[in-house]
Fold:
Amino acid sequence: MKTDTIAAIATAMTNSGIGIIRISGEDAFTVIDRIYQSKNGKKKLSEEKSHTVHYGYIVDDTKENKIIDEVMVLIMRAPNTYTREDTVEIDCHGGVLVMQKILDTVVCHGARPAEPGEFTKRAFLNGRIDLTQAESVMDVISSKNEFALKSSISQLQGSLQKEIKELREKIIYEIAFIESALDDPEHINIDGYGQKLKTVAEECKERIEHLLDTADNGKILKEGIDTVIVGKPNAGKSSLMNVLLKKERAIVTDIAGTTRDVLEEQMNLNGITLNIIDTAGIRQTDDIVEKMGVDKAKEYAKEADLIIYVVDASRNLDENDEKIFDLIYDKRTVILLNKSDLDTVVTEEMIRERISQKGVQKQIPVIAISAKEEQGIKELENTVKAMFLKGDLSFNEEVYITNARQKNALVNARESMKKVIFSIDAGMPEDFYSIDLMDAYESLGNITGESIGEDLVNEIFSKFCMGK
Structure:
């Protein structure tokens, strides 16, 4: 497949030790020959062996001071490259100005600026990787914790691709058998075939459902848990945030209402990420600025994956607590009875009675802690992990679904397999089976990119970073 030649800065646009400019396409060697000058006058890079490194200069003959930078140049011939195209990488000094000058020179001599994600897009279109592997490239770059990184690398190595390929092979075999039987009924007997197909369909449905069961864990691995800390003023919310982060991020005083705006931080909790938001204390107030903070706290609580409700156990519950109970009744919540190192007046039994009065049926964890003395924090961490993860995370053989696009395609495939089973149980003709099997086959193909439209491909890769 012939393509034009693209170029981009592949390293971050900030001053650093080394910068990399990547060139890919049919004219990559032509471009580098025009701007590269060796130190000893050797032959052109286009005449050198593949996967070799060369020391010299990038020059611009149109300028009086033609040497731009001293560089190392790596040349790689198709198809043994990331994009399966001729590829050149220029390793230069990592100054923003010098990287930009080299890129401008590359573009002036025959390349064009690459679009976001275009190198990986070409790797996908040229068949070197499938769409699950392409998406995992950005997941590796943006991984926030060790579990997310391991999951992304597993997908990059083809774990999800392998699972989807096996499912599609099973389904297409049955489609081919049905079509052949319908075309040649004299030689292919399909008596009793429905029950055989039902066994296969149920197995495929179960495997799809197993993948879907990993989606919640996959989202948590990739994006983290949006966690909002709520409570009355001076309940110890900011102290808790500082303890969890292991640094003095929030201002802590004895003055109620110190936190007026929203504080956002990330922390790693047993290998998963918490996106923690410390909010203003919720209470009735006439202070305009504080009221705005309270309103923000309520908005964030509505959107949260997890609410940590900090109760000052040394003070009686009041009408402000009632407002907080209204926020948490339909959310995953952990209630912390803080200041357990003092004489307390609020007990777990009192909290559970208030919860039951609100008609909440689910069991909400209630933990006694002391943010000041850092007591009960480990129990809080273990409780949060148990609430969100379905069992322990393992990367020996497990495949995790990590984005909504993959999950939606699996949901569609599962529904199609359910229709196949329904049609068999209802005694419908075999061509009904074939229609729904094909729908499942196409839905699974959307995951790997084998049954996907150009517009969606462009949308997916537009979210990638430049130079990748």
Summary: The chain has 16 helices and 13 strands.
